[in-house]
Design brief:
Helix content: 25-40%
Strand content: 15-25%
CATH class of the largest domain: Alpha Beta
Strand order of the largest sheet: 6-7-8-9-10-11-12
Number of strands: 12
CATH architecture of the largest domain: Alpha-Beta Barrel
Largest sheet: 7 strands, parallel
Radius of gyration: 20 Å
CATH superfamily of the largest domain: Enolase-like C-terminal domain
Mean pLDDT: 94
Order of helices and strands: HEEEEHEHHHEHEHEHEEHEHHEH
Shape: globular
């Protein structure tokens, strides 16, 4: 797949940054940076989804000269030596997040300069995109116990919405039993994050209760220890991974061969790694599904485009950004998202009339 785009010519004349900020349903204010590369009368955009707000403020004040004549592959090589970080990132994984912002902007620009789309370049059609809505069931600013109130509110927008949920040990058996009334496709156990504000400690009883309560749902990112591993005996096909997936080698190093994986291009970093990882999954019979990072701009379109071209029928966590608002409103598109009628570049406008 990468060979189909690696040699696309690319002219960069200017590089600019735009800060975006929005409150989220997960109780924090999200900040991202839109990276715009321009040349030959065209603009290509990508989005840096680093989770440190100060890093974005530093980037938008940064003077970075990337002007030149490249191919997509040559531009990627040039980024190896570019000063993308005015201050070192707080976490090494953020280097991939920012790298994807620049690389996706370059790919978007090169496709537009060639007057084509990613679908045409890859020889694939943009198909309607199935999506799930990812949400928590507790108010991060309240000590009240978790409820299904947010699921009910979201289903008042579209009655047939499917969900990706983040269970926590506070979920009692009554709440777990009530999930049978909802279309829950993925349960993110969050066992592999280093951030204590996000991660759940490995707990065999917690994992077992969640796995039993929603027997058809995928189980994402369990922390496999001597105590928790037996919970997943016979359930390996339901286990999926997100945090560890940073490219082909990372998949080969998983505890066992996966059937399903969360595909977040920002975790892979480069266009080459993203496309090689998708191609590897297709060869090995692994089902990817799209994952999001609370994108606020074109980055959301890009993960929808990859899902549209490569895994449109999966439980893609690529819902339109409005579903992440603290109070999601009426008028949001239903699943599946209609693809753009006349895509250019990577592709934008999914679900828009």
């Amino acid at each position: 797949m990468y060979d189909r785009v690696a040699d696309l010519p690319l002219t960069v004349e200017d590089c600019a940054f735009e800060l975006r900020e929005r409150a989220t349903s997960s109780g924090f204010d999200r900040v991202t940076t839109t990276i715009t590369l321009s040349g030959n009368g065209e603009t290509g955009r990508g989005e840096d989804v680093t989770y440190t707000n100060a890093a974005h403020h530093a980037l938008v004040e940064h003077d970075l000269d990337l002007a030149g004549e490249y191919t997509v592959e040559a531009f990627s090589a040039a980024l190896d030596d570019a000063d993308l970080w005015p201050d070192p990132p707080e976490e090494e994984r953020f280097r991939h997040y920012r790298r994807w912002g620049f690389e996706s902007a370059a790919l978007d620009l090169s496709l537009k300069q060639a007057d084509t789309s990613l679908g045409e370049a890859l020889g694939r059609a943009y198909d309607p995109v199935d999506f799930v809505v990812s949400t928590r069931l507790s108010d991060p600013d309240s000590d009240d116990p978790p409820t299904t109130d947010r699921l009910d509110a979201l289903r008042r927008i579209h009655a047939d919405l499917a969900f990706k949920l983040d269970p926590t040990p506070e979920w009692d058996d009554g709440l777990l039993e009530s999930l049978a009334d909802y279309d829950v496709r993925v349960l993110d156990l969050k066992g592999l994050y280093e951030d204590e504000r996000v991660s759940n400690d490995p707990d065999a009883d917690f994992y077992r209760r969640v796995a039993n309560a929603v027997p058809e749902a995928l189980l994402e990112d369990p922390n496999l220890t001597e105590e928790t591993r037996p919970v997943f005996d016979g359930r390996e096909e339901r286990v999926t991974w997100d945090v560890p997936v940073t490219g082909v080698e990372s998949i080969e190093n998983l505890p066992f061969e996966p059937s399903v994986l969360n595909m977040k291009p920002s975790r892979c970093g480069s266009v080459e790694s993203v496309l090689d990882t998708i191609a590897y999954c297709e060869r090995e019979g692994i089902q990817p599904y799209g994952g999001g990072q609370f994108e606020l701009g074109v980055g959301r379109d890009h993960i929808q485009a990859l899902a549209s071209l490569c895994y449109p029928d999966a439980p893609n966590d690529v819902a339109p950004g409005g579903y992440n608002d603290p109070e999601a409103g009426v008028g949001l598109p239903a699943s599946p998202l209609a693809p753009p009628a006349e895509p250019r570049g990577i592709g934008v406008g999914f679900g828009r009339p």
